[in-house]
C-alpha cells in the first residue's frame, strides 16, 4: 500500500481503480434511463450556453466511473501467463512463461518520487511465485518518463534479486535518445532497438509479443501485440491514444500528429484481439478503439464546420475592430484578431458540435473538447 496520496498534477492523472457499480438488470435499466436523462440535460445546458457556469459538468455513466481513492496496486490475470498490473492511473503488462518474464512499461506518475515502495517490486515476485527467472525482457511502450521512469529501479531490483538472470531492454531510437539526453537517469537505455520493421519477442509457442512502431502519440509509439493462441484471445497494448470510455485528455493526448493519431487506430484494428490494454484507465476492447477513432474523425469534421460557420458579424461583435482602433489597448496587436477573436469563436462553434454529439457517449468530453477542437483547427490550417 502506498502510505500517502501522491501529488497528482499529472499529465494523465485521469484515474482508475474502478469499483464499477454492478447493477442488476431491472435496476440497471432504470439507472441507465435516469442517467441518460441527467446527462442529456447537462449537455443541452452546456451547448445552449457554454459559458453558463450553473450547467456544471456532464456526469459520467456509472459503468465508466473511476476513482482515485484506491492507491494500492492490482494484478489481474488476463490470460495464462499474462497479467495486468495497475497502479494509480497506469498500466503495465507482466508476462511469464516458465523461467522467462517480460515487463512492458515502468510507470512513474509525474511528480512522484522513485522509491523501493513501488508496487511493481512486489508484483514481480508475486507473478514469479517462487520461480527464479533466467531471462527478463523489459519493453518501453514509448518515449515518456511517466511510463518508463521506474525502469532503473526495476532493473536494479532484478539485478539484486536474480543476479544470474539475463536482462534485455527493448525500445525505439526515440526512447533511447530521450533516456540518453535526460539528466535524471531514471531509465536504463534499451539495448535492443525496435526499428521500422518491428520485432518479435518469443516466449513460448503460445506466448509471443510482436512490437511495431505505429506512432500516434509520440513519433514512435509501439503497438504491443500478443496474438491469439491456444492460451487465449489476442491482446493489444497501445498507450496514450485510446482511453476506453473517455475522450482523450489534453489536446488528443498531446499528439504530435493528428493524422497519425487517427491512423494508429486503424493499425490497431487490423489485428485480431479481444482485450485492449491502454496506458491509463480500465481495460477496453475493439469497440473502444473504433469509438475513439470515430470521435477523432468527428472532431475534425466539427472543426471544418466551425471554420465555415464563423461570420464576419460574430468577429465584429467579438471586438476584432479594436486592432485598428488607436484608442484601444489592442491597437496594432498583430496576434489579437487570430488568437483572441477568430480562434476562440471557431473553438466554441466546434465545441458545441462535439459536445452535443459525444457528451453522453465518452466521459469527460465537455472537459477536453476545446483542446481537441484547437488541435483539429490547427491541423486544418497547417497540415491537412
Ligand atoms: C444557465 O443554466 C441554468 C440551468 O442550469 C438556466 O436556468 C439558466 O437560464 C441559464 N442561464 C443562461 C444565461 O443561459
Ligand atoms: C472509492 O470511492 C468510491 C466512491 O466514493 C467508493 O464507492 C469506493 O468504495 C471507494 N474505494 C475505496 C477502495 O475506498
Ligand atoms: C532500494 O533498495 C536498495 C537495497 O537496499 C538500495 O540499494 C537502493 O538505493 C534503494 N533505492 C531507492 C530508490 O531507494
Ligand atoms: C504458486 O506456487 C504454488 C506452489 O509452489 C502453487 O500451489 C500456487 O498455485 C502458485 N500460485 C499461482 C498464482 O500460480
Ligand atoms: C466491448 O465492451 C463493451 C462494454 O464495455 C461492450 O458493450 C461491447 O459489446 C464490447 N465489444 C466487443 C467487440 O466485444
Q: Write down the secondary-structure element order.
A: HEEEEHEHHEHEEEEEHHEHHHH
> Which outline best applies?
globular
Question: How many individual β-strands?
Answer: 12
**Biggest sheet, open or closed, and with what strands and sense?**
7 strands, mixed
Number of helices: 11
Straight-line distance between termini: 48 Å
Secondary-structure arrangement, i.e. CATH architecture of the largest domain: 4-Layer Sandwich
CATH superfamily membership of the largest domain: Ribonuclease Z/Hydroxyacylglutathione hydrolase-like
Overall number of structural domains: 2
CATH class of the largest domain: Alpha Beta
Strand coverage percent: 15-25%
Helix content: 25-40%
What is the multimeric organization of the chains shown?
single chain
What class, by secondary structure content? alpha/beta
Could you explain how this protein is built, in words?
- This is Metallo-beta-lactamase domain-containing protein.
- InterPro entries: Metallo-B-lactamas, RibonucZ/Hydroxyglut_hydro.
- This protein is of the alpha/beta class and 384 residues long.
- It has two domains: 215 residues, Metallo-beta-lactamase, Chain A (4-Layer Sandwich); 86 residues, no CATH class.
- Helices cover 38% and strands 16% of the residues.
- It has eleven helices and twelve strands.
- A seven-stranded mixed beta sheet has the order 1-2-3-4-5-6-7. It has a five-stranded mixed beta sheet with strand order 8-9-10-11-12, with helices on one face.
- The structure holds 2-acetamido-2-deoxy-beta-D-glucopyranose (5 copies).
- The site of one 2-acetamido-2-deoxy-beta-D-glucopyranose has 5 residues, from loops.
Amino acid at each position: 500500500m502506498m502510505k500517502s496520496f501522491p501529488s497528482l498534477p499529472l499529465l494523465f492523472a485521469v484515474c482508475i481503480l474502478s469499483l464499477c457499480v454492478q447493477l442488476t438488470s431491472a435496476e440497471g435499466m432504470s439507472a441507465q434511463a435516469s442517467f441518460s436523462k441527467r446527462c442529456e440535460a447537462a449537455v443541452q445546458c452546456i451547448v445552449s450556453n457554454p459559458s453558463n457556469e450553473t450547467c456544471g459538468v456532464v456526469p459520467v455513466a456509472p459503468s465508466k466511473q473511476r476513482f482515485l481513492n484506491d492507491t494500492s496496486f492490482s494484478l489481474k490475470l488476463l490470460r495464462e501467463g499474462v497479467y495486468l498490473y495497475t497502479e494509480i492511473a497506469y498500466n503495465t503488462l507482466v508476462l511469464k512463461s516458465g523461467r522467462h518474464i517480460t515487463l512492458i512499461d515502468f510507470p512513474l506518475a509525474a511528480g512522484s518520487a522513485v522509491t523501493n515502495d513501488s508496487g511493481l517490486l512486489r508484483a514481480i515476485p508475486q507473478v514469479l511465485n517462487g520461480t527464479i527467472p533466467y531471462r527478463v525482457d523489459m519493453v518501453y511502450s514509448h518515449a515518456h518518463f511517466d511510463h518508463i521512469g521506474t525502469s532503473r529501479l526495476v532493473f536494479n531490483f532484478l539485478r539484486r534479486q536474480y543476479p544470474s538472470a539475463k536482462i534485455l531492454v527493448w525500445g525505439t531510437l526515440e526512447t533511447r535518445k530521450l533516456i540518453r539526453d535526460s539528466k535524471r537517469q531514471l531509465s536504463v537505455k534499451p539495448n535492443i532497438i525496435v526499428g521500422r520493421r518491428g520485432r518479435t519477442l518469443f516466449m513460448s509457442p503460445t506466448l509471443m509479443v510482436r512490437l511495431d512502431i505505429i506512432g500516434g502519440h509520440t513519433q514512435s509509439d509501439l503497438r504491443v501485440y500478443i496474438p491469439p493462441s491456444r492460451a487465449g484471445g489476442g491482446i493489444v497494448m497501445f498507450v496514450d491514444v485510446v482511453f476506453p470510455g473517455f475522450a482523450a485528455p489534453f489536446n488528443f493526448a498531446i499528439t504530435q500528429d493528428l493524422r497519425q493519431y487517427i491512423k494508429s487506430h486503424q493499425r490497431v484494428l487490423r489485428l485480431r484481439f479481444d482485450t485492449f490494454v491502454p496506458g491509463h484507465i480500465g481495460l477496453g476492447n475493439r469497440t473502444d478503439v473504433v469509438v475513439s477513432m470515430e470521435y477523432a474523425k468527428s472532431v475534425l469534421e466539427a472543426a471544418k464546420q466551425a471554420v465555415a460557420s464563423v461570420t464576419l458579424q460574430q468577429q465584429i461583435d467579438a471586438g476584432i475592430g479594436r486592432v485598428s482602433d488607436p484608442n484601444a489597448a489592442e491597437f496594432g496587436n498583430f496576434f489579437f484578431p487570430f488568437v483572441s477573436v477568430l480562434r476562440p469563436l471557431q473553438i466554441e462553434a466546434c465545441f458545441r458540435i462535439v459536445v452535443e454529439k459525444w457528451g453522453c457517449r465518452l466521459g469527460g468530453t465537455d472537459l477536453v473538447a476545446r483542446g481537441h477542437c484547437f488541435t483539429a483547427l490547427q491541423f486544418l490550417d497547417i497540415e491537412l
